[in-house]
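tool_call predict_complex ligand=flavin mononucleotide
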Amino acid sequence: MTHPAPLTPPSLPLTLLRPDSLLPVPGPAPALPRIIQGGMGVAVSDWRLARAVSMTGELGVVSGTGIDTVLLRRLQDGDPDGHVRAALSHFPDAALAARTVQRFFLPAGRAPGQPYARVPLPTAERHRDAWELSVLGAFTEVFLARQGHANPVGLNLLTKLQLHTLPCLFGAMLAGVDTVIMGAGIPRDIPRVLDALAAGQPATLNLDVRGGDPVPLTLDPAAYGGAGVALTRPKFYPVVASHVLAGVLARKASGGVEGFVVEGPTAGGHNAPPRGPLTLDSSGQPVYGERDGADLQALRALGLPFWLAGSHGTPDALARALAAGAAGIQVGTLFAFAAESGLCADLKAEVQARAHTGTLEVFTDPLASPTGFPFKVVNLPGTLSQAGAYAARQRVCDIGYLREAYRTPQGRVGWRCPSEPVAAYAAKGGQAADTTGRKCLCNALMADAGYPQVQRGGHTEPPLLTSGDRLNDLRDLPTAYHAADVIRVLRG
Ligand SMILES: Cc1cc2nc3c(=O)[nH]c(=O)nc-3n(C[C@H](O)[C@H](O)[C@H](O)COP(=O)(O)O)c2cc1C
Ligand code: SF4
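tool_result ok
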């Protein structure tokens, strides 16, 4: 009989944390932060970045998107600093943590050209591997972000990734997450889920199924190390593009909403589509107008704090937001290229160098994301933004976050994604025309964070970078800067 390998080290020695990220802590965090560091997937806002921001007293936010794969790949790369295993040694279900380490950890990392281990793509009925890794991954990320200070840390998730939401929330709550921020969808049921998990009760979330009834997914804390454990209920801030949606969520969500992030169409990552019929400009980007802005007076009337996001990364914008009644701003792009972010170093250096010549272009791509939401793409050689690199990539669906559940003619739940191989998508009843221009964001964003899969034939997945429209503003910062520098600049 084999026994799980012991986890080392038994607790997190803070000496493992890089000294340059140990920034002065100017006292406890205020009741509400003026600056939220936006959640940025995959692993761009990782624990190092969130920790550095939270140490300044503002709100650092880790990304829970794809955190199961990130955990697996960190372990397969040998967890060189030992942080992941150190965090896992604090997980309440020691046997589950040990089993996972034993299964995936490679002490010397992968051999050159060796692919990362693949776990079966989760489905509504079979998702144990993905859920275990998600609980452990979210726990690890929040646990590490909270080390060395007593200030709050937040978690960001994309609402559309319904299959992974419950385990990510639960893992983050086990590690003491303070705030949950969710966009890319209408997170109406999340307050109820947070209430249930906080009470140690099973939580249920519906999985939307195209062409059929939703399928309930349930996570029982007892099955993932949380038997009978009462947890702190985090605050919940949905990300909204309009005051109308904010009003609906404030009135009709399944429980408490404690604030909003109000994000405009110039923000990095996914954007809400323009209201009304989609019109493209001469370069092929969606046209946004007056109607797409949120009415701040209507937002104030809701009586909840809100933060403005999208090109608000300046002291003037912060002052204007406060004057308009906001609690502050949420900023992403400036933090994405800070030293502590999880973006891989060569991409960061390349973008910083180009920003200083003011030559970076950001394209709001209406097609790139299989979700159908516009997605901001940085035009950068060596990435999937280039037609040649896109055409050369062999389509494969092996991570699966952006698949859509659909009802098959036989009445079962099937899974498909317009970025998967075209023939497979069409065989599942998808329209081949819907695959045009779609990019495999799952694989590309893993590559951005330094975890590219090695596919058949030794082909390494290329990256695809996203940022807000104001990417060239990086030239106002030194070529290499820290999260605390961004905070200093924003505070004015
Ligand atoms: C690289 C990058 C990745 C992002 N990923 C996410 C995400 O996973 N979820 C999310 O809600 N917002 C995401 N965002 C949006 C940020 O959280 C934030 O709202 C936005 O960046 C603010 O606008 P700014 O980019 O002009 O500062 C992302 C932004 C960037 C730059
Ligand atoms: S983006 Fe790629 S890996 Fe993700 S679901 Fe679609 S095809 Fe699969």
